[in-house]
Amino acid sequence: MIRPLRAAALAALIAGPAGAQSPLDGIDGAMGGPIGDAVEKLGEMAADQLLIRDFLGMELTGAEGETVGTVRDFVAIPGGKLAGALVETSEGTRILVPWQLLSVESADGKAIRATQAAADLTGSQDLVDLASQLSD
User: Fold this and answer.
1) Residue 75: CB partners within 8 Å, gap ≥ 6?
2) Structure confidence at residue 107 (pLDDT)
3) Bridge partners (DSSP) listed for residue 98
4) What are the distances in angstroms from CA 61 to CA 98, 99, 136?
5) Helix (H, G, I), strand (E, B) or coil at 124
6) 2 membership: H or E segment, kind and range
7) Taking the alpha carbons of 3, 7, 8, 9 in that order, is the dihedral positive or negative?
8) Among candidates 107, 99, 17, which has minimal Cα distance to 60?
9) Is there a contact between 63 and 122 (Cβ–Cβ < 8 Å)?
10) Is the dihedral angle over the CA atoms 133, 110, 116, 12 positive or is it negative?
11) What's the pTM value of the predicted model, to 2 decimals?
């Protein structure tokens, strides 16, 4: 069984780099049914793809541009939805930032930002506790 996060990453990898020819080019969903629909959807998403691996090791910034920490991993829940980002602060503390508090952007470069101030995130014992549960 493929873990949900790996499945999401695999789906993004299948789409290929933006602007490049995708292995899905020329496939118009002729297979029909759920597989054909999925192939068609992946083909449409290829131009706007953001790969998870691009964000690993990236600096997470807070709402005011201040540094929160470094993205070390992502957490997915059953069903494949991203639940949060595991972030290591400059003090070495790990926090789990819920996905709904993150904004993933791509313009000239890729960026990941929190919708909350860094101090609110790094000062939250609840986020520290969630992160520690993942490493147990």
Assistant:
1) 5, 82, 83, 84, 85, 86, 96, 134
2) 54
3) 84
4) 14, 14, 27
5) coil
6) none
7) positive
8) 99
9) no
10) negative
11) 0.64
> Alpha carbon of 15 to those of 3, 9, 19, 80, 117: distances in Å?
19, 10, 10, 17, 34
**Residue length of the chain:** 136
**Residue 109 near residue 76, CB atoms below 8 Å:** no
Beta-carbon contacts of residue 64 (< 8 Å; ≥ 6 apart): 117, 118
pLDDT (tens, 9 = 90+) of the chain, 136 residues, equals 334 444 444 344 333 344 444 444 444 445 568 888 888 887 776 666 677 888 899 999 999 999 999 999 999 988 888 899 999 999 999 999 999 999 887 554 568 899 999 999 999 999 999 888 876 5
